Structure formats: C-alpha cells, structure tokens
C-alpha cells in the first residue's frame, strides 16, 4: 500500500493496539493512535515517533467518536484503514453469577464500540481508494474452537467476553456483505501476553498483531468477510 495510507487504531496506547500502531507506522503510513486518555495516548505517540498522531477517542461515547471523526476529516480528509482494537474482558465471574449489567458493560466497548466507530468513520473510508476495516476479535469468539476440547479456547467458560467476540464476528460478516468495495475482516490475535490476561499469554505482542497487520494491508482484491489468526483462516 502507498506511503500515503492513513490508518486509525482504537485502544492503542498499550498492548496489541500500540504494537499495531508501531508496525503500521514502520510501513511509512500515517497512523492515528486512538486513546481514551489523551495524556497516555500522547505519551505513547511520542515514544513511537515517526508519523504517529494521537487521536482522543472513547469508543463508548457518541460525542467523543463524532469529535474524533471530525478531527480526522479536518486533518486528513479521509481514512484508509480502521482497526477496531479497543476492548475489555469485563468482570471475571462464573456464568451462574453473571448478570445483565456485566454483559452490558462488555458489549458497550466490544460490540457497540466498533459499530459506533465504524458508522462514524464510514464517510471518511468512502473517500479511500482501498478502504479496509479490521475487527480485532478473539479465538474465544469461535463456536467451533470453543467446542473443541483440544483447543485452549475451550478452557475459557464465561458469558461476557466470548459472546461479545462472537457478536463482533457476525457484525464483521454483515459489514463485509453490505460494503462490497471495502475489505472487512476479523483478526484473532491468539493467546498473547497483554494486560487483558495478566500477561499470561504465550505469544509476544508482535506475534499477536501478525494477523491484524496482514489484514490491514490487504488489497482491493484481497479477502473480505474472513476470520484469521497468524497462521491463516480459522473457523467461525
């Protein structure tokens, strides 16, 4: 892709988001580091250097997302790549104790957040010659993998986080069908050491961003409506 590519990564002041920003900026792209906390976002952008710009954005707020879209329009006039990375695990409670409030909290960020951000930025993505959207999902969103006792995903028994990623997967496929000119795909980072799992994952953040970075670079004839990890296509 061109060095003039403009990308936005949400939830990017640390972890997978920050590493995604670093790797995309290394391609010569202009990368907007989306962060709910402007101070932390600015600090991360300063550390990364290059063509990294901080963009304050809280994916749970209509007002914040609208303001971010307006700012990108004023700065750049378009967007080529949107990486919906911001996500939370929510409270770690057993299914028997999980209530609607816990579900609502997680879905607000992991499901409604990507929809809110995508809708707001679609007019800017429409101006791109090769618009791409990457939804950062998880293997625990796969009904097939979580039903396979040989897979690590089957060991996580929870209502909140897995169901939010399953919902995000369906949203991905529907956007892909509705936006034929776009490339819209879901990335499974794999079990990566981040704050979300207390750094218990066996992959590095670089390994965890392989699928994200790959899907961010797909061309106009590349895959859309797919679900991939760093090794290739995975089952829904």
From TrEMBL:
Q: Which organism is it from?
A: Pseudonocardia lutea
Give a yes or no for keyword Repressor in this entry: no
Q: Which CDD domains would you find in this protein's record? A: carb_red_PTCR-like_SDR_c
- Ranges of Basic and acidic residues composition bias in the record: 227-236
Keyword Oxidoreductase assigned to the entry: answer is yes
A Pfam cross-reference name: adh_short
Q: Please name the PROSITE patterns in this protein's record.
A: ADH_SHORT
Keyword line: NADP, Oxidoreductase
Locate the region Disordered: 217-236
Source species, domain of life: Bacteria
What is the designated name of this protein?
A: SDR family oxidoreductase
Tell me the protein family, please.
Belongs to the short-chain dehydrogenases/reductases (SDR) family.
| SUPFAM superfamilies from the UniProt entry | NAD(P)-binding Rossmann-fold domains (SSF51735)
> Entry's PANTHER family?
(+)-NEOMENTHOL DEHYDROGENASE, SHORT-CHAIN DEHYDROGENASE_REDUCTASE
């Amino acid at each position: 892709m061109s060095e003039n590519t403009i990308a936005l990564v949400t939830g990017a002041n640390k972890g997978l988001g920050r590493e995604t920003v670093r790797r995309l900026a290394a391609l010569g792209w202009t990368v907007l580091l989306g962060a709910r906390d402007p101070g932390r976002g600015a600090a991360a952008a300063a550390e990364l250097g290059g063509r990294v710009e901080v963009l304050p954005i809280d994916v749970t707020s209509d007002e914040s997302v609208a303001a971010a879209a307006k700012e990108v329009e004023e700065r750049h006039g378009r967007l080529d790549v949107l990486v919906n990375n911001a996500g939370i695990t929510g409270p770690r409670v057993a299914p028997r104790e999980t209530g609607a409030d816990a579900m609502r909290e997680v879905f607000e960020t992991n499901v409604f957040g990507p929809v809110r951000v995508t809708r707001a930025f679609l007019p800017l993505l429409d101006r791109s010659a090769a618009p791409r959207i990457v939804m950062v999902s998880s293997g625990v969103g796969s009904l097939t993998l979580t039903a396979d006792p040989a897979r690590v995903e089957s060991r996580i028994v929870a209502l909140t986080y897995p169901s939010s990623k399953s919902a995000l997967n369906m949203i991905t496929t529907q956007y892909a069908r509705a936006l034929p000119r776009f490339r819209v795909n879901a990335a499974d980072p794999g079990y990566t050491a981040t704050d979300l799992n207390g750094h218990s994952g066996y992959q590095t953040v670089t390994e965890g961003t392989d699928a994200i970075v790959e899907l961010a670079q797909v061309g106009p004839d590349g895959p859309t409506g797919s679900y991939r990890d760093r090794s290739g296509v995975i089952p829904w």
